[in-house]
Write a structure and sequence with these properties.
The protein is α+β, with helices and mostly antiparallel strands and 150 residues long. It contains three helices and nine strands; from the N terminus they run βααββββββββα. Helix 1 packs antiparallel against helix 2.
Length: 150
């Protein structure tokens, strides 16, 4: 593996955990569960499992990014990346997976810093990361050699 970084979304984890506690509080105080809270609890637990972190790695000349437990992931061959550059994401772009109409897809778990990938067909894809310079360097290094370690 040529590069690997896992970033946790502390605010996202805290917000979802707080929601889970709020849904469970009536159960612990009354001992009764109603159907709607069970559905809400299921959604909150699923969201927590799916989006608690964002892992980015470069392996076998492929950039792999995945949220949480890995059910949501994207693979981009390094050969399809025309350019990688550090960016500052706007506050309104948010966290999670977002399409900024006419501009780019964004995958972000926390913070505003990131890396924008300009793909050879012209599409743009942004990854939120707290170490954008290291990711850009790893992409450039691995595109050039394909085997250098971090």
């Amino acid at each position: 593996m040529e590069y690997r970084h896992k970033q946790f979304g502390a605010v996202m984890i805290a917000a979802l955990a707080a929601g889970i506690v709020l849904v469970l509080t009536p159960f612990f105080s009354s001992g009764k569960f109603h159907p709607i809270p069970i559905e809400i609890l299921t959604i909150l637990i699923a969201a927590l499992a799916l989006f608690y972190s964002l892992t980015v790695e470069i392996n076998n000349n492929t950039l792999i990014c995945r949220f949480g437990i890995g059910l949501i992931q994207k693979k981009i061959p390094l050969s399809e990346i025309h350019q990688a550059r550090t960016v500052q994401n706007p506050w309104y772009a948010g966290w999670g997976i977002h399409w900024i109409p006419g501009r780019y897809w964004l995958w972000n778990v926390t913070g505003l810093r990131g890396v924008e990938l300009i793909l050879k067909e012209g599409k743009r894809f942004r990854l939120g990361t707290n170490e954008p310079e290291s990711l850009v360097q790893a992409i450039e290094r691995n595109k050039a050699t394909g085997t250098n370690l971090r």
